[in-house]
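ARCHIVE CARD
Drawer: 12
Card no.: 0347
Subject: one protein chain, sequence and derived structure
Cross-reference: see card 0346
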Amino acid sequence: MAIDRISSSIASGIDSSSAPRTTAVDFGSALERVVAAVDGSAGEANQAIGRMVDGTGDVHEAMIALQRADTLLQLTVQIRNKLVQAYQDVMRMPV
């Protein structure tokens, strides 16, 4: 199912293991992968809607793709909000 593909693409940017990593992951590239996953999810949702309109796709498939894209977008917005808040907190620190 397509849900496994998205969860694996996000999980590739985030490692939940407590073992130290031997290779450093650039924050920018990890963020780029998350944004690419969100963009890909939106594209899949658009394709699912197109198939539904053509009559070749299923309504359930389109709704699941839409919900997945919406959830990923909300997650990305929350990450952005936290990053902006952290930046503002650092900039307010007295020197």
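Annotation on reverse: The mean pLDDT is 84. The CA atoms of residues 38 and 75 lie 9 Å apart.
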